[in-house]
Amino acid sequence: MKMHEQVCYHLKNLNTLARGMRIEEKLNEIKGVRAFVNVAAGRATIYYNRRWVTEPELRGIVREAGGKILDSPRGELLSRTGGDCAFELCDLVAKPEIPVQRLLCYVDSLIAKQRYPFGEEIRRIAKANGVEPQRVRHLRRGKNEVSGVIDKHRIRVSTDSFGVQQPEGDTLQLSLSVDGEPVGYLEFSMIRVR
What we know:
Helix content: 10-25%
Largest sheet: 7 strands, antiparallel
CATH superfamily of the largest domain: Calcium-transporting ATPase, cytoplasmic domain N
Number of strands: 10
């Protein structure tokens, strides 16, 4: 099926994975529509065929599914984080039972004082979801990982290339585990800013 149009909505209240999935499912039920919802970025990207659906109809479907569309983009999807490297969150994956707020809280709490170049972007996303970092006990920083105890759980954030500036187009993935069990990850695209 050929898609003729693309639209991107910035959503004010996209703060749980369940709500994001509900919006995505409702949109994908419509003939001529293929939608992707990024909960952490607060963004719904929709490809559609005007033969089957109009843009105002798409807006109505999003609202009926519980999404509140911002009329103007927040300008928050890309944040410059020092030097000539910027990060944009391009994916967030978590187990269904893990609310996005908890995942963001764990990641933000561990890296809040670590001065990683992507930390500012995670801080912004956490704040947009009403998340404040919690107290971390037994903080440890190893090669490509940070771990500590939050709410009596051993939390670990790791990556293959913590804070390394990569050529344009590369990605950085932060994996999160709780008590040794993988629960999700955040993936960033790294962009050279000239």
